Amino acid sequence: MIETEALTKSYGSLTAVDNLTFTVTAGQVLGFLGPNGAGKSTTMKMLAGFLTPSSGKASICGFDVEAEPVEAKKRIGYLPEGAPAYGEMTPAGFLEFVADIRELEGPHRAQRLDEVIQRLHLDRVLHQPIETLSKGYKRRVGLAQAILHDPRVLILDEPTDGLDPNQKHEVRGLIREMAADKIIVVSTHILEEVHAVCNRAIIIAGGRILADDTPAALEARSPRHRAIRLALPEPVRAAAAEAVGQIDGVASVEQQDDGLVVVPAGDAVILPEIGRVALSQGWDVSELQVQTGQLDEVFRQITTSDATGVRA
Amino acid sequence: MNHTLTIMRRELASYFATPVAYVFIIIFLVLAGWFTFYIGGFYERGQADLAPFFSYLPWLYLFLIPAISMRLWAEERRSGTVELLLTLPVTMFEAVLGKFLAAWLFTGIALALTFPLWLTVNYLGEPDNGAILAGYVGSFLLAGGFLAIGACVSAATRNQVVAFILTVVICFLFLLSGHPGVLAGFSAWAPDILVSAIASLSFLTHFDAISKGVIDLRDIVYFALVIGFFLVANAIILDLRKAE
Fold this sequence. Notes:
The structure holds two protein chains of two kinds.
Chain A: E1 2-11, E2 14-24, E3 29-33, H1 40-47, E4 55-60, E5 63-64, H2 69-74, E6 76-79, H3 91-101, H4 106-119, H5 135-147, E7 153-157, H6 165-179, E8 183-188, H7 191-197, E9 200-205, E10 208-213, H8 215-219, E11 228-231, H9 234-245, E12 250-256, E13 259-264, H10 271-281, E14 287-290, H11 295-305
Chain B: H1 2-17, H2 19-39, H3 42-45, H4 51-69, H5 71-79, H6 81-87, H7 92-112, H8 115-124, H9 129-156, H10 160-176, H11 180-187, H12 192-201, H13 203-211, H14 217-241
Helix pairs in contact in B: 1-7, 2-4, 2-7, 4-9, 4-10, 5-9, 7-9, 7-14, 9-10, 9-13, 9-14, 13-14
């Protein structure tokens, strides 16, 4: 379990992280979202024991990161932003070094090394200096180092940054696989990633928590949530817009390049009625879609309107 | 302690994974030979000892040791590996000590490779090998003192050039404060107790004492204290500045 209580970090007059209190339990994959400079990395650095909080507390599996830093660090696998590694070392040498520090021994050590090398497909580059590897491989070396000791808690700062789509897919798969019995905190500014791997999302901006919910619930905050998109040919579009505008529970109708987006008022269910109207009018509807609401829209809405410091 | 040794091994291996180690060792040996034989007048003196070598060594160290120490922490901070190292389950002091010991051991290796000088004097005459051994012990301690200062300065900046220059200046002051010329300047007006305090702070005073062949416990304690002081300062500075 990760627990923080009024966790705060300030640099002079600048407060990078402001009074964060949250708890993450096993099985949760927490996505940390926020604009650049929101305090995501600073928070993760405090959890990982790199930065000392200015005030407040954080604990990992019951060990306070300041009072018992070594015990806390033993339980964490941490991938710092940019996945730094000793460039002149080979992945093999680097992982051996981490295994030494993590005190992995005997058959367990060999088995863990084998497993992370297999899982992250490092066998081909095992004996090449890390500085000569591609960005994708460097990132994977960083991930291998983080999961080597099979930690209870994984803190990954932008784990897929700089990876190509296939590699991103693989890393997300890896995170999902490990999610069942671990506590995982992932920071990202790629919103689709939250959807792909997280079952909880915290949006922070200006060092404060603005939203803390499941990705689905966050999407439901979008005004476009459950809006209906109809693809219609040009001639009937204007007439259709007027007709659906009359339907009970429709808040607004927007005309787009290839059709209409009908936004419901509140929880109103408008799909059946739209269907009936479309059928009776004989519109040539080529596509009909219920939209789930866009996370990036919600993200923008929350981080720009609430950036004044009002908590959601 | 195991962690310290693990960090030391990794660091030492990294010197030899790059040209740094070889370049340093070759330049060190060439300059040491040059100072000893040409500048120091090894043959002309007609004495079977290594005094010319040991008397120029502090000045050689003044420029070569900062070249080793400048990258110790500046490089870790620049590449971000300091974040990796300090989030592994090691204490700050294990990390500081491990990296320092690696650098110290490395200068020890370079120093040991000057053994042909020792072979030469033994071939040419019958030197006092005890005094030579004392000289080597003193040199190793001096290198440790310089390195501790350099490591501390390196933790304070991420720019290696700045680290190099600052280290040279600080080490120079530590050396110079024992130089007779400097002390004469002080003794003209300062009370004797201050003059001897300044002299006793100097690397040179203690190094000369040891390299004359007398290993006094006080000189060893002096170097141990200097190294300890700067390593503690290193840990504190690193803790304050690691995030920048």
